[in-house]
Each structure stands twice: as C-alpha cells, then as structure tokens.
Design brief:
Helix content is about 40%, strand content about 15%. About 45% of the residues are buried. By secondary structure, the chain is an alpha/beta fold. Helix 2 links the parallel strand 2 and strand 3. The protein has two domains: about 230 residues, Rossmann fold, CATH 3.40.50; about 200 residues, Rossmann fold (3-Layer(aba) Sandwich), CATH 3.40.50.2000. The protein is globular. Helix 1 crosses helix 18, helix 5 crosses helix 6 and helix 11 crosses helix 17.
C-alpha cells in the first residue's frame, strides 16, 4: 500500500528572490521532494529584509504552487546592528514553526544552514515538546575562521560561539545531512553520540536541466564578451573561497607562462570571472584583476566582481568557449558548480582536490578535464599551461558526453536521497519516541 504523503517544514533563511548561492539547496529540493512522498512548506524571510540584490529571474524558477511562508526580521536600516538574517529572523521563524506545529501541518522539520543560527530552531522547538528534526550543512559550522586568531575579534567571537552553540543545536537531531559527508563529519567527531542516535546522509546540490531551458537563457547573448569574436573565452562564475585563492594564482601563473612561451593560444585566450569580488554587492571589489595585472594579464582577464543575476550567469555559461572551475585545497570541498557547468554543454577545465568526486566523473564522462591538487601540493604553472594547450586542442562534442555519469548528481536524485533519509529518521523517531523522550528528560 502506498504511503500517505508526509509534509516537511523546510527552513531556508534565504530563498528566491535572494540571489545567494545557498538558496539553490531549498529551491532544488522543493522541485522534486513531492515525487518521493514529501510535500515541502518553505519557511523563509521576506525579501524586503534581504540586504543583497533581488533576483526575480531566479524567483521565476520556483514552482508557483509551492507554499512559502515569508516572515518578518529585524531591519538593518537606519542602523545595522546585526547583519545575519538567521539571527534577525529567528523569533519570527520560531513563531511560524510553532504555528505550523500547533496546526499539525508538518511531520518533519528540516533546516538548511547557513545561516548557522537557524540550526537552533530544531532544539528550541524540541525543548517545548519533542519533534523530529534535521539539519542540512551547506557549509561546515565549526571551523577555523579567517582572522579568528585575533582574540576578541568578530571572527574569534563567531568561532567561539559556534563551538558552544553547535553541540546544543544538534543534541536531539534525528537527521544530519550535507552537500558532502566532509561538511558534517566534524559534527559527528565532536558529538560521537550522534553516530548512534542520528541518521546521516550526503548529497550534492544537484543540477537542474530546467534552469538552462528557461526562455530568457536560450534567447539571449552574453553581455561581457562576444562569443563570435574568434577568441577562446573561459568563464569562472561564483564566489572565490579563501582556500581557493592560491589555486587561482597558480592558474593565472600558468596563463602568464603561455604568453612567455609565445603560445598562439595566449593571443586569443580570454578569461572572465563573475562574482569573485570581495563583497557580493561591491562593483569595485576586485579580487582577481589585481593578481592578473601583476602578472601582465590585465588585457586578457576581465572581472565582474559583484554578484550577477542567476539567469544572466547561465547565459554567459552557455555562451562561453569553456568553463573554468577553481576548487579549494580543502579535502571535503566538492564544488557543486562543476555539475551545473557541465549542463551548459560547454567543456570544463577544473582545478580540483585529488579527492574530489568530480575529478573522475569529469574525465570518465568526456565532459572536461581536471588538474589535481592537494592540501600540500598546488599545480605548477607549467602543468596549468600544458593542460590549457591540451584543452584548447581537444574537440568537444556535447552529444559524445556520457550524460548517464551525471545522473547521481541531479537535483532529483538529491531530493530522493533527502526524502529517503527523512523517511528513515522519522520512522526511527516514531519507534523510539515513547521510551526515549519524555518532557522530564528533554534538556
């Protein structure tokens, strides 16, 4: 007999029309969860409280039938006391969830983080009356923050607060997930009891073939370059992580070496960066151009430092000659943008950690090539230059790509895995709740 549909209250502090990268987790899951027996109800913050530019093109990709609850939040104007929307909206998110709980309108609570402070919502509700809840790590919460070595600095305080809050937030979680197992493995090491009491699962963001087929993507041309000017246009789109900066510098040194060699490729190679700036909303916050200029590449590298609308990024991906991926030196980092890039039907050249699942997938599928690195070893400029020469001379045919290699990384497959994990966590919770949890022992 078919199981009755269950409902998940899915907390996403940011959701379209926010254009932050994290919004795609809840957006993509909500597209497919209903196929696996779960009806999502999104609890998010009203867009008037977002500080980033709004992206209504991205919002158009959200199913109009999806139930989305938009809450209030503390304002940031005229005085910005708190920036983190998870903190600013926490009381209102909690109130919305309490209302849904009173009305018995969800079977499971699933919280995507960051904002990391939203992770406390599960335990806050659990203390009032036990409920099954899960936390999904898009990024690790407890880690070494940049500048955290400066005692009593903002970064130091954030790190110390995360070390205290996370154990409390996950104490009674029924489910811990992440975009890769490395994103939550530290949680299990710091809280070993969770290995016995909690279901765990890892799944990437996943890609959506629907996004690239949007009419506004298929009918437009890139604004940052001319795809028909005879040059080879490589495009990198997305934030530049702190531990990817050294990798980027090696890549640019490889490009500079091509010019030193007098390579014909160097005369027509153009490398474009979108969204790599120091601040997502600062059009002058260049992070790549200063490095490129120092290496004499100012005429061959362009940077659009601030965030670009999502559908505009897809237009540029489909118009590029090839897609550049610059990964991190962190072992757990698995760049979801690799699988999105492949869907542009353009060849991919990626600098990735040797442990990344994307390395083998790229080469087995004939979708591109990877230059590997590790925590202690960055690629030499000569390796990069040689790889660029091979990349430029290799014929790419989208029809020859083994697309079945990517089925495991689709948004639909990720939603299936989340649904299965929630089923398991909820069934275990239901079996154990009576004997394990009573109001007298909830802490």
């Amino acid at each position: 007999m078919k199981q009755a549909e269950r409902t998940v209250a899915l907390v996403a502090p940011h959701f379209p029309p926010s254009n932050l990268a994290g919004v795609h987790r809840a957006r993509l899951l909500s597209q497919h969860l209903h196929e696996f027996g779960w009806r999502p109800v999104i609890v998010t913050t009203h867009w008037r409280h977002y500080e980033e530019a709004l992206d209504w093109g991205l919002a158009s990709l959200v199913d109009p039938e999806l139930e989305v609850i938009h809450t209030a939040a503390l304002p940031t104007r005229p005085i910005r006391v708190i920036g983190d929307v998870g903190v600013r909206a926490l009381p209102w998110h909690l109130s919305a969830l309490r209302k849904l709980k009173r009305e018995k309108r969800f079977d499971f609570l699933y919280i995507t983080v960051p904002s990391f402070y939203s992770a406390t919502l599960g335990q806050l509700l659990f203390r009032e009356a036990p409920i099954p809840f899960g936390i999904d790590y898009i990024d690790p919460w407890v880690h070494v923050w940049p500048d955290a070595e400066v005692k009593y600095s903002k970064a130091w305080l954030s790190m110390k607060l995360s070390e205290r809050l996370e154990p409390w937030a996950v104490r009674n979680a029924a489910l811990i997930t992440g975009v890769a197992s490395g994103y939550y493995e530290g949680v299990l090491e710091r809280n070993p009891n969770l290995r016995e009491t909690c279901v765990t699962a890892a799944m990437p963001y996943g890609f959506s073939t629907r996004d690239f087929s949007a009419p506004s993507v298929m009918s437009r041309a890139p604004s940052l370059f001319d795809p028909n000017d005879g040059n080879m246009h490589l495009l990198y789109a997305g934030a530049l992580l702190p531990k990817a900066v050294g990798v980027l510098e090696r890549f640019l040194e490889g490009v500079a070496l091509l010019r030193e060699r007098g390579s014909l490729l160097s005369n027509r190679l153009r490398v474009h960066f979108i969204g790599t700036g120091k601040s997502p909303n600062d059009p002058n916050g260049y992070a790549v151009l200063p490095v490129a200029s120092r290496l004499g590449l100012g005429k061959f590298v362009t940077e659009h430092p601030h965030r670009m609308a999502y559908l505009d990024v897809l237009v540029h991906l489909t118009g590029a000659s090839g897609i550049l991926i610059v990964g991190s030196t962190e072992r757990h980092y698995t760049p979801s943008k690799v699988f999105q890039a492949v869907q542009s039907r353009r060849p991919v050249i990626a600098l990735l950690h040797e442990a990344s699942t994307a390395v083998q997938v790229l080469e087995r599928s004939r979708a591109g090539m990877a230059i590997t690195l590790s925590e202690r070893r960055l690629p030499e400029p000569s390796q990069v230059a040689d790889a660029l020469e091979r990349f430029a001379s290799t014929h790419y045919c989208a029809d020859a790509v083994k697309w079945d290699q990517f089925e495991a990384y689709s948004a639909r497959e990720s939603a299936r895995q989340v649904a299965a994990a929630m089923d398991e966590a909820l069934d275990r919770y239901t079996r154990e709740a009576a004997q394990k949890w009573s109001p007298s022992i909830v802490r």
